[in-house]
């Protein structure tokens, strides 16, 4: 994997502008902050982010992959304002689960998720 950083662009914080990779593709469906019993772990956005990322890694493990193989994350959040206000705590959750691996990423505000109490849904693409 090679990070793509155009000359003169500022370094992104918490994501990459682009990644070049080759290998076997693994796609992970949107994961929310519930545990293996289908119970949301918290009503707090940062805790839901941490659990959603752990769920992403659990699916990736089935393909023999880990956080280092993730090349793209797409986050759907129900509140941009809550996301921005929680960035520091979200960063702690992210690093606890993903380490210092920062793939390309997009965050999109949505009006709601299928699971009404979920505040975030995260989908992933990995290259193994």
From TrEMBL:
Pfam families recorded: Ribonuc_L-PSP
SUPFAM superfamilies: YjgF-like (SSF55298)
Database matches in InterPro entries: RutC-like_sf, YjgF/YER057c/UK114
Superkingdom in the source lineage: Bacteria
UniProt-listed PANTHER family: BLR7761 PROTEIN, YJGH FAMILY PROTEIN
UniProt-recorded name of the protein: RidA family protein
């Amino acid at each position: 994997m090679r990070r793509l950083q155009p000359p003169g662009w500022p370094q992104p914080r918490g994501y990459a502008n682009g990644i070049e990779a080759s290998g076997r593709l693994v796609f992970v469906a949107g994961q929310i902050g519930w545990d293996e019993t289908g119970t949301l772990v918290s009503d707090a956005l940062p805790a839901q982010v941490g659990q959603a990322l752990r769920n992403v890694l659990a699916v990736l493990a089935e393909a023999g992959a880990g956080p280092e193989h993730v090349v793209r994350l797409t986050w759907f959040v129900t509140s941009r304002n809550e996301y921005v206000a929680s960035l520091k705590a979200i960063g702690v959750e992210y690093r606890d689960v993903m380490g210092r691996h920062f793939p390309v990423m997009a965050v999109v505000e949505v009006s709601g998720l299928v699971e009404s109490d979920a505040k975030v849904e995260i989908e992933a693409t990995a290259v193994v």
